[in-house]
Specification:
By secondary structure, the chain is an all-alpha fold. The chain is built from 8 helices and no strands.
């Protein structure tokens, strides 16, 4: 299912870029440059490009094959970065400076029904693929962390849990219930959470801690 939605992401992305490209004027990218806003976008930038939480799941699905894992992580990092840069470049160049509001709203108005459908397909499929990735990673994490005996050794020694087992229901509940409760309580907290997670959680958990762990490991060898 995730592969199908990923294909929809690629197709709809290519269609959107193709539809918006005729309206793009590269000079618009340099009409307004406020470097003081960099600090504001760094948390969102870090959060949008992080993928480290799915690495254990990728390693498990590729059965520890180092070459395949390296290729998957390298391509999986480069392709989203390329799409991110192309998307921002084309969209920002296609919208006149000073328009205000969401650039996609302006494109929907000027691009007609085809562009609106493309934006909807791309947005929904991108959300679904991100959701599936985080869902798999977090449920696998809870499965390993809460398995009797804990740790990687226990997970390799035991057979995978049935999708309908109580432990899997527990893992899915721990993964889905907290964000669902927060979203129902106050949907506006989502944007605040992005800032906090990008500024502190992602930079610490996936930026500083791995480097410190590697240095600590090497110092003991």
């Amino acid at each position: 299912a995730n592969n199908a939605f990923a294909l929809v992401v690629l197709v709809s992305f290519a269609a959107l870029v193709g539809l918006a490209l005729p309206s793009a004027e590269p000079a618009r990218l340099f009409d307004i440059a406020d470097w003081g806003k960099i600090v504001d976008i760094v948390p969102t930038l870090l959060l949008s490009l992080v993928f480290h939480n799915v690495v254990p799941t990728v390693c498990a699905q590729l059965e520890g094959d180092r070459q395949k894992i390296t290729v998957a992580i390298t391509l999986g990092s480069f392709l989203p970065l390329l799409m991110f840069l192309v998307w921002n470049g084309v969209i920002l160049a296609a919208v006149a400076p000073g328009t205000g509001g969401d650039p996609l709203d302006a494109l929907r108005v000027s691009g007609g029904a085809a562009l609106s459908v493309g934006v909807l397909a791309f947005s929904l499929s991108a959300i679904v693929t991100s959701f599936i990735g985080f869902l798999l990673a977090l449920t696998d994490f809870f499965q390993d962390a809460l398995r009797p005996g804990g740790g990687a050794a226990a997970s390799t020694a035991s057979a995978p849990d049935s999708p309908l087992s109580l432990s899997r229901v527990r893992d899915f509940g721990l993964t889905l219930a907290p964000p669902l409760a927060v979203a129902c309580y106050d949907p506006s907290l989502f944007f605040q959470a992005i800032d906090k997670a990008g500024a502190f959680g992602v930079s610490m958990l996936f930026g500083l801690l791995p480097a410190w762990m590697a240095l600590a490991r090497r110092s003991t060898e």
